[in-house]
Hints:
Blueprint: H1 2-7, E1 14-18, H2 24-31, E2 35-40, H3 44-53, E3 59-60, H4 69-76, E4 85-88, E5 109-111, E6 114-116, H5 121-132, E7 136-142, H6 151-163, E8 166-174, E9 185-193, H7 212-215, E10 223-224, E11 227-234, E12 250-254, E13 258-263, E14 268-273, E15 290-293, H8 314-320, E16 325-326, E17 334-335, H9 369-375, H10 388-397, H11 401-415, H12 430-440, E18 448-451, H13 456-467, E19 473-479, H14 485-496, E20 501-506, H15 510-522, H16 528-546, E21 551-553, H17 566-571, H18 579-587, H19 595-607, E22 611-613, H20 620-624, H21 640-645, H22 663-666, H23 668-673, H24 688-700
Helix pairs in contact: 2-11, 4-5, 5-6, 12-13, 15-16, 16-19
Amino acid sequence: MAEIAKARGSNGLTVISTFSGCGGGCLGLEWAGFEILAACEFVDAARETYAANHPGVPIDSRDIREIAPSDLLTLAGVERGGFDLLEGSPPCSAFSTAGNRSRDWGESKTYSATKQVTDDLFYEFARLLEGMQPRAFVAENVSGLVKGVAKGYFKRILARLGDAGYVVEARLLDAQWLGVPQSRQRLIFVGFRNDLGKTPTFPDPLGYRYSICDALPWLDGGVKGDVRWKERHYEDEPVGTIQQHGRGGHSRLLAKPKVTGRTGPHFKRESHPLDEPIGTLLASDPAHTRWEVDGPGDVDPETGQSLALEGYAIAPAYDKLREGQTDDRYFNLVKPDRNAPSPTITQSGGSSPGTAGVAHPYERRKFSLGELRRLSGFPDDFVLTGTYAERWERIGRAVPPPMMRAVGVEIAATLKGETRAPIVVRHPKADAYRDLLVELTAAPRRDVGVMLSHGIDSNAILAALLANGVTPTCLSFRVEGVESKDWAAARRIAEHHSLPFLDVEITTDLDALAEQVREVIQRGVRGKARIECSLPVWRALDVAKREGLRSVYLGTDRGQWALRRKEAIDAHDGRLDDVEFMAAQFVERRARPNPSQWLTNKAYADDLKIGLTCPYFDVRFIDVLDGETWRSLNTPRQKMPLRDAFPECDSWGTAKTATPFQLGDSQISTNYARLLTTAMNTGGWKSVVGLYNDLIRQAEA
């Protein structure tokens, strides 16, 4: 909240908010630099939360239908047309794809603690807009408004907003591409008053997304800020000494374990601490009592609400799901993939632990409120009031603040006639990646080569070398006579920096190719992919030797830290959050990057007296990757820190993909397949895998 408070009012633009809810939209606008002059919110619980986080903003508590435009202008202390932006999120459950849609239109429905018709409230927003005439407006609604039969409503709303005197456009935006670790589609209306002569614009999506683990690194015993969660303590127990220096680790404060059960004739669900007696069990009670122990993470620390699914019908269904799956029967029940953004968090998901909704990725429980804040883009110290269900509802109905911030920045730039500066949300590990890669490429400074492709791995190495004042020679391979996209990109990048470029051609002569394959196999390389990847690297090293290069930098072909040994992964639950442990595993060679391929490439380079280096295989990268999981490191998400660490690479004409050398693009695999037509295919194989296996058996005989 301190960061948002610092930004509040910095752009000199003012806002009046309607349908303010708990204030998610207002927070985003304040983060973008706006100042909120007044708000209105009809629901008591939502208004209480809004006031707790915006203590200086006056709030009108009446039904929006009873509020005149002049009432809000007076509350804000401005005249008609005397403020910059009207903001509002009219309740939208009637259009939601999660509801009954058109069957409920015109019907009075329960909304929070009220009962009202909600599908006409957008017209109330338009009425206030027409009466107050701000320079611009922004309104938000569910994606269902532009789907199916609701499209008619959408067209009527668009026309009504235009009739109020505004140039209006609407876009369907997804919060996961605007810095929120949650997939959440929202329809955003933006309009500018006709006399301004301005056209609405919308934020561009970021080039990456944040996952659940990015937002909640402690899910896997990971990091919070720059430190690891190493210990857990119960709320009524003393914690260890808090150190002033060093990475001693923070402690998570957990609620004491409790037992929960269903008791009495109505199976009322109760919860009791383990160290307190339960109520008297009566022999006349017709119902049995079943008590189950909740783990320390099964209770929300803020409210004491049990989060456990145990005892509810959805619990067995949850157990059958894998991460990333949705249950067929309880279609709202989702076990999310921790390495992807969270699915949409709905307002009803926290009404009770037994309500189907987004659950924890691997613990049999709902998310705590602290976890929910982060997954929805709210600050850790954002105040929530009411019961657990009411607090969940507030977050579930709110516009994620980073999403509205992105929209607000766009509106502010248009109002002020400025060229929009893109919002840059950098990966938290970007600086650490850059500093370490620059350090690891600092020496030597002469006769250096870099194996270059269009992928970010090798381009980041090139950027680090250039940052060190090194002028490297670029190498890239291709099949003889084939100008692959990957090779062409590497050549273009070398020309961009006026760097020497060595063209490494893979022979199409079948006799020569057969001898090269035999050599690779004789040196211990096994497996089709490794054989076909190693041979081009070796030919590049031959060219480097011929041209007098003393060292060559190599990117990765399986991602930074492709740990192969299962025993090392299992020994630490697949985590890389303990630097000392993982360093020992690498030293003992129980876990190492690309073991056979990398070691044989290194051995070949040693024979040529060329220093072959892959900076990403340095054990110091373990510290940078602290908190990451085995699973996350084998996904394109691992490239995000590098892309943010070396943004200059995007201006070099590199392809925006996370892929390494492309065997298919370079037609290298096709070239190898031609060996099936030679005399060396004594087994009559139709696939080179069989041919390679024959050669391996001969080498090992």
